[in-house]
Amino acid sequence: MKRWIPLLIFVALAGFLYVGLHRDPREVPSPFIGKPAPAFTLPVVGQPGKTFSPSDYKGKVWLLNVWAPWCVSCRQEHPVLMQLAQAGIVPIVGLNWKDKDREAEALLARLGSPYTAVADDVGGQTGINYGVTGTPETYVIDKKGIIRMKHIGIINEEAWQTKFVPLLKELNQ
Amino acid sequence: MIPEIGHFALILALLLALVQAIPPLIGAHRGNATLMAVARPAAQGQFLFVAIAYGCLAYSFLVNDFSVANVARNSFSQLPAVYRFAASWGSHEGSILLWALILALWTTAVTIWSRHLPEDMSARVIGVMGLVSFGFLLFILVASNPFARLFPAPMDGSDLNPLLQDPGMVFHPPMLYMGYVGFSVAFAFAIAALLSGKMDVAWARWSRPWTAVAWVFLSIGITGGSWWAYNELGWGGWWFWDPTENASFMPWLAGTALLHSLAATEKRGAFKNWTVLLAILAFSMSLVGTFLVRSGVLSSVHAFATDPTRGIFILGFLGVVIGGSLTLFAFRAAKMPTGGSFTWFSRESLLLANNVVLVAALGAVLLGTLYPLFMDALGMGKISVGPPYFNSVFVPLITPLLFLMGVGPLARWKQASLPGMAKQLRVALAVAATTGVLVSLVSGSFKPMVSFGVALAAWIVITIYLGFAERLKYIGGEKLPALLKIPRGFWGMQMAHLGLAWVLAGITLVSGLETERNVKMNIGDTTHLAGYDFTFQGISPFEGPNYRAARGNIEVASGGKQLFVLHPQKRIYNASGMPMTEAAIDYGFTRDVYVALGDELDNGAWTVRVFHKPFINWLWIGGFFLVLGGVLAASDRRYRIALRGAEQPAVVPQGAQA
């Protein structure tokens, strides 16, 4: 019997690997979906003295895009957000996450800003309250201030069409 | 046309792999010499055709044939030729083809240097390797054809991932694969031994040099990979416990355990079943590593291709190879007598402890790597496991091993005398403790981990010295000629242990004493770190072959004396638009000064990261000795006699060597 142990261990392992194959490692369920978006008040990048808080957007459907100047993928996502902003489909609020080097303002000035406002979360606490696992991440928040969806990673054409468009249509009705 | 030739060569190689596997295995079972004789020419033919296929792929990359999908996705016309060549294994398809090529290369090496083996043994070994080849070639043809065409062909390619555009990338994957795949030889020997039912010590002797050579390549690959990460990733780290790194580290741990266990099996006939199991484990870990990296079940910084059909195929292949071998083991292992008795304190018992610790460490790394997947599969949520887990589990596990590394080589086989060794060990302990205290005195601050780590390294070094001293006393006569009489196997072991001690000292010192600073610098600003003054003299533009860069000029001075200028770069690659940080490093034996550019701010100011890394190069120096030890061990006289014996069987009978 002892000689069968290695095989049994392997079979168990293979079972897990099989299940794991059918899962997307980047798909992370968020416990915040269906819950009110955590409140915060943060300074707005590039507008000294001004602050942003989610209650400002009550009555609107909007996106909260968590990004950072040091994030390479966010740079790839940037042109997509620019297109969305130009089309004026939905207001996008940026959460400038853990920007310790204070680079966001210069970067947005250079590349253009897709955001209606950029909240400055230099300490990262607000991001943690939202359950941010990495950048970029995008939250869809409805008229009542409830988080309806969280998208992890870059918003590409496919993700936009399949995940965002139907939900935004439903929420805007 | 050329890609089609490559594709066709692959199909022929697949068929030859079958010919290499089936008739010789049947022949070995039935004692039919004609069928067994098929093994060698079929294996060499298979190598030829896989090499032709690889040549066609490399050619397509070199001539920028963007009608080949693989080339279009992973190359770019402005890419320098050497990186175009390296790009041929930078992609998923290419890297699997490289796997198959290296497997065929190892098999061919076995066909050449196995003439001293009994015919049925070599036929089985080559046959088993043929089955593995068949699986990989089938995978390439079915699920990841590197020669698939694109129509219409794009004007230009989308470039090789800039991370991979580094001299390190040219050598790193082939080295790693030489190691991974090299364990297939020990695996094939173990399976051949199980199939034949003859589990004598001979198979251990035969597979020992092969295992050592594979281990050497894997060690070069891992050390080189760590050096590459340090130089290329721009955040000053050298090991991240990333799933891809773990995928190369797990076979290394299993291979290290196997090397030690083979020694006990060959010399004393001990742990026969255990050694067979380790040989299966080492190669299984290579396959699991390939699966983890290639199937996309785990996301990692390296994030290669993710395609579930490929994952299913590799998993099925794993099931056949690993599941099949373990089933064979379950049926056959029980039949084999376990030989060699030993007491609780002996070379054998210490080697067994070594094996247990290494396998436990392997288990810990495997668990940490797969834990997110387990939790997800059980529906218990998504988590990730990071360096804190690995450091807090791995370090306490491996510490007793490093301690035993000092004791093991001094202990006798079968029964060692603890009182007899106590005198030696007391001296070593005293020297180690003194070193630990000295370290905290010299560095000016008491850090328990640093003192302990360096003391442990000193402990290993002293026991190596004691080991040599004892050998010399045993041989007698003049010191220098006696030193040359010591067999290379012993030299190899001690060099490898010395290398590990060196790595250990480096890791401890750099982790405990490194400092860094992340600052905003205007032109002319100076920042201070660890006694160095860094002055930012602005940026000049720089044109690379396929990128544009901002090149920083940072003057480094110490005590008012100008030392050197560092030029870190921030690159934007033309094809992909991807930004990359290229660190600038001033290397030194006792420290590295490491500078990386962050981002541009207003008025020519930049964020700059400066690191002071004491003794970081000891990691690679230690790695060099580790590898040297492996080379010496693999080239021990007894193995060369075995080879010569094959050519002149009348002069040196097989197995005459001790």
Structure notes:
The complex is a heterodimer of chains A (173) and B (658). Chain A is α/β, with parallel strands linked by helices. Chain A has a single domain, classed as Glutaredoxin, CATH 3.40.30.10. Helices cover 36% and strands 18% of the residues of chain A. In chain A, strand 3, helix 2 (72-87) and strand 4 (92-97) form a beta-alpha-beta unit. The radius of gyration of chain A is 20 Å and the shape is elongated. Chain A starts with a helix and ends with a helix. Chain B has 658 residues and is of the alpha+beta class. Among the domains of chain B are: 1-156; 177-300 and 351-402, no CATH class; 515-615, Tick-borne Encephalitis virus Glycoprotein, domain 1 (Sandwich). Chain B is built from 20 helices and ten strands. Chain B has helices at residues 2-30, 33-36, 39-62, 69-74, 81-87, 92-112, 119-143, 167-196, 202-232, 243-268, 272-295, 308-332, 347-377, 387-407, 418-443, 448-475, 479-485, 488-513, 617-634, 637-647, and strands spanning 515-521, 526-529, 532-543, 547-558, 561-566, 569-573, 579-582, 584-586, 591-600, 606-614. In chain B, the strands form two sheets. In chain B, strands 2, 3, 4, 5, 6 and 7 form a six-stranded antiparallel beta sheet that branches. In chain B, helix 6 packs antiparallel against helix 7 and helix 13 packs antiparallel against helix 14. The longest helix of chain B is centred in the first third of the chain and has 31 residues, at 202-232. Chain B is globular and about 80 Å long.
Topology summary:
The complex is a heterodimer of chains A (173) and B (658).
Chain A: H1 5-21, E1 42-43, E2 51-52, E3 62-67, H2 72-87, E4 92-97, H3 104-111, E5 117-121, H4 125-129, E6 137-141, E7 147-152, H5 157-172
Chain B: H1 2-30, H2 33-36, H3 39-62, H4 69-74, H5 81-87, H6 92-112, H7 119-143, H8 167-196, H9 202-232, H10 243-268, H11 272-295, H12 308-332, H13 347-377, H14 387-407, H15 418-443, H16 448-475, H17 479-485, H18 488-513, E1 515-521, E2 526-529, E3 532-543, E4 547-558, E5 561-566, E6 569-573, E7 579-582, E8 584-586, E9 591-600, E10 606-614, H19 617-634, H20 637-647
Antiparallel strand pairs in B: 1-10, 2-3, 3-4, 4-5, 4-6, 6-7, 8-9, 9-10
Helix pairs in contact in B: 1-3, 1-7, 3-5, 3-6, 5-8, 6-7, 6-8, 7-8, 7-12, 8-9, 8-11, 9-10, 9-19, 10-11, 10-13, 11-12, 13-14, 14-16, 15-16, 16-17, 16-18, 18-19
